[in-house]
Amino acid sequence: MAYIRHDKDNNQVSPQPGSTTVNELSGNDGWATVTYKNFNADYVARNNNNTSRTPGTYQARNTDNTTRTPASYNRHDDTCLPQSALDFRFAQRKSLTDQVSGKNLITFTRAGTATYVDAGGFVKTAAVNEPRFDHNPTTGECEGLLIEDSKTNLFTYSTQFDQTHWDNVRSTEVIAATIEDPQGNGSQTAFKLIATTDNNTHRLDKTNLSMATSRPHTMSVWAKAGEYTGVSLTIADTSNNQNGVYFDLSAGTFTTSGVNYNGKMDAYPNGWYRCFATITSTGNDIASLSQRCLIGVLKDGSTHTYEGDGTSGIYIWGAQLIESDFNLNGLFTSYIPTEGSTVARAAEVAEVTGTNFTSFYNESEGTFFVDALSTGGRILGVSDGTTSNRQEITSSASNNMVFQQRNGTMEVNLNEAGMDRKSAFSYASNDYSISGGGSTVTAAQKDTSATPPTGMDRMKIGVWYNNTDQINGYVRRAGYLSYKVSDTILPKFTT
Question: What is the pLDDT confidence band of residue 237, given thresholds at 50, 70 and 90?
């Protein structure tokens, strides 16, 4: 019996499928032709009462069947957002591969090696030009693609605390032969810092340092509780060398002493903590300091003056001192190992250029979005290689998210405070919009007179057009759509 299309009430309906005849197994075997009803080809969109529906072919429409812009169907990703033309999921995939094309479109460069934290929470070394997908040392979660500028560890012998470059002050140090250091894999290069029997402070001093005046500096070290459970970090003032940051290695907490100090404490496997102390330049200039740093053995999280027993102490590894661009910057820098001299980590550049760029970029309209943790710098942007012809999302020195467009003069400060942010902007002729942190696109976040810049030939991720001003943070995700999404949809990329 031939197929007849019926409605939900089992009544015959029109249109009926047409017939199609094809040749099958021509020759002496089997039949020569077959005829079947091609009801797929004859499908016409219809209303629930079987009347003709406009449009007859499938198009994206609103719930009331009115025209939706864009009217054509757009693929959506797994978060139900419009499918990108470009989608780098660094934190999810730990790869430079574009989610859409399946290709590695990014050129990544760094002139030297650099360290990162793996999924197990251990400190590892990446080769020259190898991207670093850093991890939270406590949870093992991937933070994203790490992008940093050039920094110099001003300490020599960052793990060899028995060298004469470190001065013992009522303390001794011995290699901790039974303690696995933060590198894991059985590595045992940590030292035990022991308090002598003197009733006083107990510490290691690093003197005669070359610190720039009137500049913030950050000191850090990995520390682990032994018989004693505290460590102090001080960028010392000659008038009072007890100011600094005090870390309780048992409770995982810290306190600050003195003005203009900030601290941070990250938990690592096997009882290790990476401890940070930053001193700002305001009100306590490095010029007034004695150009020395102290690592103190505390009996607990606060007691720095006590009588030791000559055998009890704490464990330390991986000391570092860097000049920071501003206060928060130094609290998020990767470790730079040194031996007999200071060492500079090379700056990193991630970019999409050439045909990799032109394969997705639409000069007349589009939408960019990014998820990043930035302590400053340029988060995501395109340019022609000049400062006068670009559009980008950047992080200001006050840690606010800013959109800049330099074909004209558009600049929008969203005052999105904090380092962790999701941001997006869309553009078309006389129609720019920006959103951050899920913010609704208001009149202050629009520009109806800006014209998209022309001649764009590169996209930079976590770095400025001229390969400077790195974010010193992470990019979790970055993507692009080749059309301008509506102002209603744009905030969905930033929540």
Answer: low
